[in-house]
Amino acid sequence: YLRQHTRETRLSEFNQTEIRAMLGSYTKVLFVRDPFHRLIATFLQGMGISPSFSSFVQDVLDSGMHNSSAAWKPLVSLCRPCLIQYDYVVMFGFLRQELSHLLRRAGLPAGSLLPELTDTQVQWTYRWLSEQMFSELSAQQKKQLARFYRWDLAAFPFSSSFLSD
């Protein structure tokens, strides 16, 4: 898109004509991750100051949809997948396979640009972490989290998510 930007700008700051022009001129890629895995990663990175995962989750739930951090806010509210037609949706846990395909489609040498990713190890680790962290939550917290992320769970194929059980 031809308009020059001097600062980070949200799409909502443009008028409809500019939005259509920008979205039509870019290849749009959306990276998605199981919302429960996003919560775990945020907690482990220390972005939540709570002493336990359960209290961190309660803080997230108490913050509500409008006051929540982008680190754990539902993706559909951040990326608007129902309004924006993304060219690619890349699922965390399948990064190597999907990024390789995406780079080839863009005409770039996929092998030399990708770090060594072992998707199966990542999936196994998050499965184990999910089991441990999920067991810390009360039945009510589990139900509230599933409701908080219901649109993400409906929009993306997180079939093995603990929140969709």
What is shown here, in short?
This protein has helices at 16-25, 35-44, 53-63, 75-79, 95-105, 110-113, 119-135, 139-148, 150-155; strands at 29-32, 88-91.
Share of residues in helices = 40-55%
Biggest β-sheet description: 2 strands, parallel
Number of strands: 2
Count of alpha/pi helices: 9
Total domains: 1
GO biological process, one term: dermatan sulfate proteoglycan metabolic process
Family: Belongs to the sulfotransferase 2 family.
Membrane topology: Single-pass type II membrane protein
Keywords: Carbohydrate metabolism, Glycoprotein, Golgi apparatus, Membrane, Signal-anchor, Transferase, Transmembrane, Transmembrane helix
